[in-house]
């Protein structure tokens, strides 16, 4: 066996995690040549897989957090952590919303469009009081 072939086989046996490119660079040949030599010698052409990543435990439930950052939450805990319990201003029903959805600059949280519409109608819409007020304002403008 020529010297180069022996070096390739030796490097594969000593360093099973090395890729073909790393072996080829250290010997001074092409990656395809390394693959050919290893397949002729009956050695594996693919390097061993690196060990699986370990994740920190979720700070709430203790399960793996699926994220490399420390102190993170797992997916279910992240979903429930982002929810805030609110009470509707109009119908006094309690409901859950995500934190970032509560930044609306209105009088308060509403459980849906129907309650928002009711509130807007009471404060800005056409009710008996508002209709009478508008009629007086229109009549004053017409007389001036």
Outline of the structure:
The chain contains 6 helices and 2 strands. The chain has about 140 residues and is mainly α. Helix 1 (about 5-15) packs across helix 3 (about 30-40) and helix 2 crosses helix 3 (about 30-40).
Structural class: mainly alpha
Strand order of the largest sheet: 1-2
Quote the beta fraction.
5-15%
The CA-CA distance between the termini, in Å, is 112 Å
Radius of gyration: 35 Å
Largest sheet: 2 strands, antiparallel
Order of helices and strands: HHHHEEHH
Tell me roughly what share of residues is in helical segments.
40-55%
Low-pLDDT windows of residues: none
Number of domains: 3
Count of extended strands: 2
Which descriptor suits the 3D outline?
rod-shaped
**Average pLDDT rating:** 81
- Helical element count? 6
Provide a descriptive summary of the structure in words.
There is one protein chain. Strand 1 and strand 2 form a beta hairpin. The protein folds into three domains: 3-41; 52-81, no CATH class; 82-136, no CATH class. It is mostly helical and 144 residues long. It is rod-shaped. It has six helices and two strands, in the order ααααββαα. Helix 1 packs across helix 3 and helix 2 (20-27) crosses helix 3 (31-41). It is 45% helix and 7% strand. The mean pLDDT is 81. The protein has a two-stranded antiparallel ribbon with strand order 1-2. The longest helix has 16 residues, at 128-143.
